[in-house]
Each structure stands twice: as structure tokens, then as C-alpha cells.
TrEMBL record:
This is Probable nicotinate-nucleotide pyrophosphorylase [carboxylating]. Residues 114-279 form the Quinolinate phosphoribosyl transferase C-terminal domain. GO terms for molecular function: nicotinate-nucleotide diphosphorylase (carboxylating) activity. It comes from the Bacteria. GO terms for cellular component: cytoplasm. SUPFAM superfamilies: Nicotinate/Quinolinate PRTase C-terminal domain-like (SSF51690), Nicotinate/Quinolinate PRTase N-terminal domain-like (SSF54675). CDD domains: QPRTase. It holds the Pfam family QRPTase_C. Gene3D superfamilies: Aldolase class I, Quinolinate phosphoribosyl transferase, N-terminal domain. Substrate binds at R102, T135, R136, K137, R159, K169, E199, D220, S243, G244, N245, S264, G265, A266. Pathway: Cofactor biosynthesis; NAD(+) biosynthesis; nicotinate D-ribonucleotide from quinolinate: step 1/1. InterPro entries: Aldolase_TIM (IPR013785), NadC (IPR004393), NadC/ModD (IPR027277), Nicotinate_pribotase-like_C (IPR036068), Quinolinate_PRibosylTase_N_sf (IPR037128), Quinolinate_PRibosylTrfase_C (IPR002638), Quinolinate_PRibosylTrfase_N (IPR022412).
Amino acid sequence: MNDPVTSSVNCDKLIKMALAEDITGEDASTNAVIRGYVRGNVQLICKQKGIICGLNVFARTFLLLDDKTQITFNVKDGDMVEPGQLLGEISGDIRVLLSGERTALNFLQRMSGIATYTRRVANLLKGSKTRLLDTRKTTPNMRIFEKYAVRVGGGYNHRYNLSDGILLKDNHIGAAGSITKAVQMAREYAPFVRKIEVEVENLDMCREALEAGADIIMLDNMTPAQMKEAVALIGGRALTECSGNVTAENIKNIIDTGVDYVSSGALTHSAPILDLSLKNLRPAED
């Protein structure tokens, strides 16, 4: 696989788990009509305009069922695709083509949908300094694929998981007793090279986070006017990120606030799939 994330050894494990979910014992429908090896071909057809993403994951799904399967693509991840476009062809044991079809398409449609939606949102930020980030609001066991899709779509990844960075949210602050205490404890615990991000909900909290020495201040669920005031208050002494129900429909309201980053859970939890299909399955000619 081309990307360092999707080339991880974790990918095969996750793809196998998805296949095992769909084939707990046998593919009864396929085995009922195909009793032995028959070589065949099937075409990957686009049915909706969007950004294609996850081709290597799609291919790997079939290869894990049978490493003799042959897959050719006419496009690459990140390409814009159009309805009716022939995206590729898969050749091999017809039983493998049928049994792997749904799992392979689930990965490809989901990842392509995220890349398509991310591209749409990222395009709305063009001309501004603000970068678009994802969140940890991902489908369980799909994070490695969904965060890759965000990058293909033109977004950037926030921390991958809880081990990647310190982000002190409302409940962390409540557990520590205050923003000041939470930042102090984080500084004592973390190596000096690790940045500390603090979530704030109003200007008073913003002031406290700034005075406590936060490296990044997340402006959570603030109005555009409040965010603009907070950015002015921070004055470049910390990086700024805004968060809270950010979607394609409202992100334009954020552009003029001056924040460095905007994080959107909608990129991964609300993106519709891209409609794709495997069609025209037929036995291969001798």
C-alpha cells in the first residue's frame, strides 16, 4: 500500500476481522451456485461523482482471500471520479470475487465518502490560513483507514489516539481542579518537547489557559464573535483551534476568526459513502 499508515501491519489484521465478520463459516450463497474453481472477471464501476480513496485496501481484501487474485486500477487515490467511469477490474476465482465483494466495497465506499466530504470542506477554507483537522470520532477499528481518507481529501490529522498528545478537556480540568493545576500537572508529567492543548469554553477560561502556559488553546463551541475575541486575546502566544459541531454548512462562519486550526468530527462520523459497485461478473475467456 502506498501510504505509511495503510501499509501498517495492523491493516491486514483489521481487514481479516472484517472478512471474518462477513464469513463466519462459509459463503453459503456462493457455494450453492459455484461448486469449484472458475476463473472470472468483474468491473469496479463508479456511480457517483467524488474522490476515490482506499483502492489498496479494496485490493488487499481480495488478496487476503486469494493471493492469486489480479487487480488493475484505472485511477489512483485522490482522483476525482465520475458516474459510469470504469475504475478497475478484478480477476480470479469467482468464489473469491463474490465472497470479498461486500467487505471490499464497504472499505472503498466509506473511505471515498470521507475523502469526498473532506475535500468539500477543505475547499471552503481556501484562501485562509486555517487548516482543517479531523478528530478521534471515528468508527471503531476503522480509524487507520478513516484518518488516511481525511488526508487524501486534503485535511490534516489531529492526534491519532490518546497516546499521541496531551489534550486537557473539561473532564480532565474538573479532575485536576482547575486549568492552571491541570497544565501544571501535565508539564510535570510530560517531556518538555510535548505540547499541551487545553479546551476552553469562554474568555475567562481562555485567559487562564494562556496564563498557565498552554501551547494550544481549543475554542470549544464558541460563537464566531467569541472566537475572534479569543484569538485577539491570545495574540499569537499560543496556537488556536476551534471545535464544536463544525460542518460544511457552517465552516464559512469561522474563516474570518483567524484561528490556526479547525477540527471537525463530521469528516469521519457524518460523511456519506460514495456509491460504487462491482458489476458485469462473468467467467473468463480461455
